[in-house]
Amino acid sequence: MSETTDSLHFIEQIIQDDLDAGFPSKELRFRFPPEPNGYLHIGHVKAIALNFNLGKRFGAPVNLRFDDTNPAKESIEYVNAIKKDIQWLGYQWDKECYASDYFEQLFVWANELINSGLAYVDSQNSEDIASQKGTPTQAGTNSPFRDTPPEVNSRLFKEMAEGKHKEGSFVLRAKIDMASPNMLMRDPVIYRILNKEHHRTGTKWCIYPMYDWTHGESDYIESVSHSLCTLEFKPHRDLYEWFLSHISPLEHKYPKQREFARLNLSYTVTSKRKLAVLIENGTVAGWDDPRMPTISGLRRRGFTPQSLRNFVKTAGISKRENVIDVSLLEFCVREDLNTKASRFMAVLDPIKLVITNYPEGSTEMLETENNPEDASQGSRLLPFSKNLFIERNDFKEEANRKYFRLTIGKEVRLKSGYIIEGQKVFKDNQGNVVEVHCTYDPESKSGSGSLASQRKVKGTIHWVNQETAQQAKVNLYDRLFNVENPDQNKDQEFTDFINTDSFKQVTAQVEPSLVNLNPGTNIQFQRLGYFVVDDDSTKNKLVFNKTLGLRDTWSKKK
Ligand code: ATP
Ligand code: MG
Question: What is the whole-number distance in angstroms between the Cα of residue 235 and the centre of ligand 2?
Answer without folding.
Answer: 14
